[in-house]
Design brief:
Layout lengths: L1 H7 L1 H8 L1 E2 L4 E6 L3 E6 L2 E6 L1 E8 L2 E8 L5 E6 L7 E5 L6 E3 L4 E6 L4 E8 L4
Antiparallel strand pairs: 1-5, 2-7, 3-4, 5-6, 6-11, 7-10, 8-9, 8-11
Length: 124
């Protein structure tokens, strides 16, 4: 229900009208880095955590999906250094913080989805 509300709101707007960016990185620090799909002779590897980085309406929207049944720890990196940027959890708006080191440590439960709105001075 909550995801539906978000997709009808600002997150949906970011997916529809936002610009894909490549300036942030997500590195797996613990857990599987890739998952492999097999179907007959077809075999393909994909990142274990899907990652969208969208710029829209003076904010950055970052959506991450753990596609495995295992716990994963990761590091979101590339944010502006200092406390001029606010990171807000879109599924729990009371969960807001700064990332003064320019990075955020994340822990994903199996199949968990995380979505953040990042705003403030996004210029480097």
């Amino acid at each position: 229900m909550q995801v539906c509300r978000e997709l009808r709101g600002e997150l949906g707007q970011a997916f529809l009208f936002g610009q894909t960016k490549k300036d942030l990185t997500l590195s797996i620090t613990d857990g599987p880095e890739n998952i492999e799909f097999k179907f007959h002779k077809f075999k393909e590897k994909y990142p274990s955590v899907g990652f969208a980085n969208l710029a829209w309406n003076n904010s950055r929207y970052v959506v991450m999906v753990n596609s495995t049944g295992k716990k994963i720890e990761a590091m979101l990196d590339g944010l502006v250094y200092g406390s001029v940027v606010t990171v807000q959890n879109l599924f729990d708006t009371k969960d807001k913080f700064t990332a003064p080191e320019g990075q955020v440590e994340l822990e994903f439960k199996p199949y968990e989805v995380k979505a953040f709105r990042i705003y403030g001075n996004l210029q480097r």
